[in-house]
Amino acid sequence: MAGKGETKSRILDAAELLFAEHGFKETSLRTITSKAGVNLASVNYHYGDKKTLVRAVLSRYLEEFMPALKAELEVLLTRDDFSMEDVFRCVKTPLINLNDYRQRGATIFMSLIGRGYTDVQGHLRWFILTRYEDVLQLFTTAVCRANPSLDPETLFWRLHFTLGASVFTMASTTALCEIAESDFSRTVTTEDLIERLVPYLAAGVAAPIEQPLLLVQEEPTGTR
After folding, report:
1. Which residues form the HTH tetR-type domain (predicted)?
2. How far apart are CA 162 and CA 72, in angstroms?
3. What is the mean pLDDT of each run of 10 residues along the chain (224 residues)?
């Protein structure tokens, strides 16, 4: 009979893969228990409900990623001057190291983050924002120091566009690397992919701010 620790790990391992592949909404607890080879009572005993299980799955990655990102940002913020690319490169090593923590860790982690948004998991976003507020604030501070002209609304949109591009790219790592090898005869690693992504993200966040065009509606003929 499996011990408590082993049972919890089996549940988390099964949930992690199913959530990343199918999403939080589409994955039932019964599907998870079937893949993990445990009964439903085990999930209820260890995690209570699905929301708690979702947070536990993501926490395994966040507890590895966030402290490492915090350390990178703290070093960066001691500098008098740095660019937007420097800010985004702070993410590179913590993200790549997730591949050492778990097989395909970076890809799975970014897939789970993306699912948190596309599945409208408000409780998950609240969990991340409150538990890791200090790290997220350091990141925002670094972005604002690299580009002081960003107003709060523009910053909001550009960081969310950045998240979308990052999630799609990192969650599609395997497919993108296979396409690059097939079409361009190039072997691409996760590190190569991030190095290509960073300048793109930095340029997008630091792009000049333009005023939105106001559409002037013409008056119907004969109204005057």
Report:
1. 5-65
2. 19
3. 74 94 91 93 90 93 97 97 96 95 92 83 84 96 95 93 92 89 90 93 90 55 54
Which token pair is 223? 């109204």
Q: Are 119 and 186 in contact (CB under 8 A)?
A: no
Q: Are 65 and 95 in contact (CB under 8 A)?
A: yes
pLDDT at 195: 93
Per-residue burial over 172-210, b if 16 or more Cβ lie within 10 Å, else e, is bbeebbeebeeeeeeebebeebbeebbeebbeebbeeee
Distance, in Å, from the CA atom of 32 to the CA atom of 41, rounded to the nearest integer, reads 12
Query: Which residues, at least 6 apart from 147, have a Cβ–Cβ distance to it below 8 Å?
Result: 84, 205, 206
Q: Are 2 and 13 in contact (CB under 8 A)?
A: no
pLDDT given at position 107: 92
